[in-house]
Each structure stands twice: as C-alpha cells, then as structure tokens.
Amino acid sequence: xxxxxxxxxxxxxxxxxxxxxxxxxxxxxxxxxxxxxxxxxxxxxxxxxxxxxxxxxxxxxxxxxxxxxxxxxxxxxxxxxxxxxxxxxxxxxxxxxxxxxxxxxxxxxxxxxxxxxxxxxxxxxxxxxxxxxxxxxxxxxxxxxxxxxxxxxxxxxxxxxxxxxxxxxxxxxxxxxxxxxxxxxxxxxxxxxxxxxxxxxxxxxxxxxxxxxxxxxxxxxxxxxxxxxxxxxxxxxxxxxxxxxxxxxxxxxxxxxxxxxxxxxxxxxxxxxxxxxxxxxxxxxxxxxxxxxxxxxxxxxxxxxxxxxxxxxxxxxxxxxxxxxxxxxxxxxxxxxxxxxxxxxxxxxxxxxxxxxxxxxxx
Length: 363
Known about the structure:
- By secondary structure, this protein is an alpha/beta fold.
- It has helices spanning about 5-15, 35, 70-90, 100-110, 170-185, 185-195, 205-210, 220-230, 240-245, 275-285, 305-310, 320-335, 345; strands at about 20-25, 25-30, 45-50, 90-100, 115-125, 150-155, 260, 295, 315-320.
- Helix 3 (about 70-90) crosses helix 4 and helix 10 (about 275-285) packs across helix 11 (about 305-310).
C-alpha cells in the first residue's frame, strides 16, 4: 500500500493543471470536485470532512444550493459522491458530511448503501445575543414548526450493518479473520498466544475483533501481527494506522453526539456557510492520525484545509466557485503546523477569531 506522502504527491501531479494553491502539506484544486475526484487513486484519503450545498436552505449566495428542483435530484447527485468517496477512502478512513436537518435522514439512508453509519451528530450553534442570525429577530408566533437552530453532521466508516455474520463485512473484522485463517491458527490458540482472554467465550477478544464488535489497541495489534506473521503463512500485515479507524476522544473534550460550537461571527469576506475552526479541528483530531490526508470536496474559504494543516495533517480542498478560490488559496498557503498547539486541550475553548493561536488566519 502506498504511503500517505506518496498518495499526496500522486494526487498533486494528477491535478497539477487545476491547482490554485500548493504547499508541501496542502493543495487547493479548482473545478468540479466530482470530476477532480476521478484523478484520485483508490484508498488514498484518510478523512473526508466536507460541507456540500444543503439544498433545503436555497441560498443564492452558496454555489449549488439552488441547483436542484426536487429532493430526488439532489440525492442522486450526492449518491455519485458517495460512490467516489467509498472508492478513495482508506480502509481506516472516516467520512463526515454536513447537512440540514430536513435532508439528513434521506441522506443517511442513501449513503448507508455505501458506508456504515456511525453517528447522526447535532451541531447546536449556541451563539451569543446579536450573533444568532434570524433566531432573535423573527416573529416567533408565526412559526409552524420548531425554529431550525441546529445543523446535522453525518459520520460514516466502511462496512455495513446486518445480521451477526454481516458484522464480518467490517474492514477490520474481515481482514483479521482472513489473516488468522491463512495462518492456520485457531481462534482459541491465537487468544492464548496473545493473552487476550474473554470473560464469556473461549475466543476472547479475538472473537470480538473478528466480528467487528470492537477493535484491538495498538499494543494488542502488535501482538497479533507477531503471532500471525510468525507462522510463516501470512505476508506482512497492514500497519495499525492503515487498518484501525482512529477515534481520539476523552473526558476532557466534547465526546457526545451533540456539539456546542459557536458559529463564525460575521466579518468582511466571510463565507456564508463557513464552519468554525474549533469544530473542524475537533473532528480532525478525533478521526485522523498525524500525516493523514484530509479531503474537503466543497472547500469554500479553505477552513477545513487550514484546520488540517494546523494539526499536522495533509490537506486537499476542491472549490468550484471562483468567488472563493482566491481567499481559499491565500488561507491555505498561509496555514502552518503549530507545534505548540495542543488541540485536544485547547480547541474546545476557542470561539472567536482573536482566540486562535495563529495570527492572520480567519476562523
């Protein structure tokens, strides 16, 4: 399997004529992202964090938001992305898709044909008075449904749901099962060799890993590799980062499926759908490893790319609207990895541009 650096440079060379900005750790690709994705190699992106047009909001100042007359047209268009995302996302990858509450259920059902749904996250946007959009201005007595003061973020991984046997369709479980069969070791013997005993069944933790119910730690996986490769029947196994989907959360950061991050405050040149850096960095920190490739197919002002670079990841943003390509190019080109920035401890307390640890960047 190619390294992340090799995949990144391959993508750079394949889209070189469409690059609007390029640095050692980031690139901005101009054009239709569905077309540009076709140049990406299979299994090359570790995290897709993207904010497509919501369709239901019908904002004329957001490219593509008014392009579809019927919901089915929008869903058909998004399904084309789902197929491409499934192709380019690494086995250990994660996909986040921002969407409106009105379209989230139908998007999740459609995308479940390609991915295993993990979470239906609610972003509550707890803004201060004066920065809450129409919420404080509108006539409440005229409402015929609850005011939509939240957005949704759908989270997926490779695999699917189903019967007990279907759990083995998870990338981790299927891979470990195949490796053990090649080794000739029984589940019980492998369990004894690595000392991962279970409280209920003789297969211990190995049974749960192969069924896709949970995953081995890095230390446990190293023991698995030594045992399985040691039989001489198994070729060099995948690196832990290429197999196990990261999920880095703890009690000191937001770990529930309700996210409380303030919206980006208005400023000259703000993108109408711009997402706050603290929320983007929260997702990137939780769902990627350092050096991973982070992809945003609807780059907007480049916020996702900036957040990824600041956290020591490689960023790829694709943007169609020429209005935003110039700002995005400037933002991504100026972004730098901050070695002193402790993301898990600090990003959850930042809500304003002036709070950010890197000067000169919009949030």
